Amino acid sequence: MTHSPRLSTPLAVRDTLPEPATDAEVDALVDLADRLDVQSVVIGHGRDDVSRQNAARFVARWEAGDGEVLVRVSWPEEAASWLRQSRRLTGPEPDLWVLGGAAAGLAQVTRRLAWSTLWQPRRTLALGSSTVRETLRLAGAACAGRNARRSPGRGAVADPRRCRGVSASRRDLAPVVSLSIGDTCRFRFGNTETRNKPYQDIDLASGDLFVFGGPSRLAYHGIPKVYPGTAPHGCGLEAGRINITMRVTGLDG
Question: Is this prediction's pTM over 0.85?
Fold first, then answer.
């Protein structure tokens, strides 16, 4: 792969097609994202009916709990380079990528992502577990190769069937420290059982520090609203907001 990340003979590959995601798979992905304090995601998927439906189900489940979808990008199974789709996938800089599709197309996209963008495989989950093994086989060399210095390829695609176990291992009760800078936001702090009520809404202004730990460390939380134009002079931002989160993750490295 000296000149291009594109699979040289994609038509000769015996493709693995996606299967409809179960409710348990979708719930597991959303649960894992919540446990990792994810607030924004980018969704990428193939253009076959199953991949579209899987993505739509995840989006509905995620947005129902006030999660933010920054952009949703689809890709064809055959393309000259998949560069346009890769740039759209990485432009918004999400907390997490959720990707799904037929194995050959998904492998082509992840190879292009690894070659041409600052995509981080370790911040990516796969939607549709039936294609994971073949995708890893096709895309692994690219994900662990050219882009390895910036983003090592281990865990490039996570199997949602294992998400329950992974999320359980993250249940560290050490405090989370969250610092807001820029525009005031509405911070929704919920309960540990569901993304729905009961929850409490709190406005966090620039410079506010929010700390939660112990049993509350596992509470669902997110930002349902930002108040534009409220960033104070001298905060370093003319518009928008950033959040600096400090937490114990339990991850290696």
Answer: no
How would CATH label the architecture of 172-246?
A: Sandwich (2.60)
Residue span(s) of the chain under CATH 2.60.120.590 come to 172-246
Q: How many CA atoms lie within 13 A of 197 on its CB side?
A: 0
Give the distance from CA 113 to its chain's centroid. Answer: 14
Q: Which pLDDT value is given to residue 250?
A: 55
- Average pLDDT of the chain is 78
Mean predicted confidence (pLDDT) in 12-34:
80
User: Which residue spans of the chain are classified as CATH 3.40.50.2300?
Assistant: 10-167
Domain 10-167 of CATH type 3.40.1440.10: no
Nearest by Cα to 176 from 220, 206, 125: 220
Least trusted range by pLDDT, from 76-90, 92-106, 191-205:
191-205
Tokens, residue 73: 């990008």
Phi, psi torsion values for 105, nearest 5 degrees: -65, -45
